[in-house]
Amino acid sequence: MSKNILIIDDSASVRQVVGMALRGAGHQVVEAVDGKDGLAKLNGQKFHLIVCDVNMPVMDGISFLKAAKQQPAYKFTPILMLTTESGADKKQEGKAAGAKAWLVKPFKPEVLLSAVTKLT
């Protein structure tokens, strides 16, 4: 079944790789360049999953996570953090803010797709 997935990452190449993997598996993809843009893209649209970077300009991933979880429509939307951050402190901060999973870059597309299947 096709899922609607929001990708938030300030790196165009990461958005491209993630987008290709997801579209290749038959999913719909919406892209955002940072947390603020990601919040603007939420606008009541149904997302089955949000894939979000941690370190971004304007609004970072943890701030986005907290803001998204404040919205009733996205309170239960699973959010997968896709980041170069592998430290336990950051992971704990992400988990506390509502992240459902943590995938460290560089990642294998099949690992990403497996996570998408488990989370949606």
Biggest sheet strand order reads 2-1-3-4-5
Instruction: Assign the CATH class.
Output: Alpha Beta
Span between termini:
10 Å
Number of strands: 5
Shape label: globular
Architecture per CATH nomenclature, i.e. the level-2 architecture: 3-Layer(aba) Sandwich
CATH third-level topology:
Rossmann fold
Please name the fourth-level CATH homologous superfamily: Response regulator
Structural class from helices and strands? alpha/beta
User: Unreliable stretches, pLDDT < 50, 5 or more residues?
Assistant: none
Number of domains: 1
Provide the helix percentage.
40-55%
Largest sheet: 5 strands, parallel
Question: What secondary-structure arrangement, pairings included, does this model have?
Answer:
Layout: E1 4-8, H1 12-24, E2 28-32, H2 35-42, E3 49-52, H3 61-70, E4 79-83, H4 88-97, E5 101-104, H5 109-119
Parallel strand pairs: 1-2, 1-3, 3-4, 4-5
Helix pairs in contact: 1-5, 2-3
Pfam families: Response_reg
InterPro entries: Bact_response_regulator, CheY-like_superfamily, Sig_transdc_resp-reg_receiver
Modified residues (4-aspartylphosphate): 53
Describe the structure.
The modification 4-aspartylphosphate is found at residue 53. This is Two-component system chemotaxis response regulator CheY. It contains 5 helices and 5 strands. By secondary structure, it is of the alpha/beta class. It has one domain (4-119): Rossmann fold, CATH 3.40.50.2300. A 5-stranded parallel sheet has the order 2-1-3-4-5, with helices on both faces. It starts with a strand and ends with a helix.
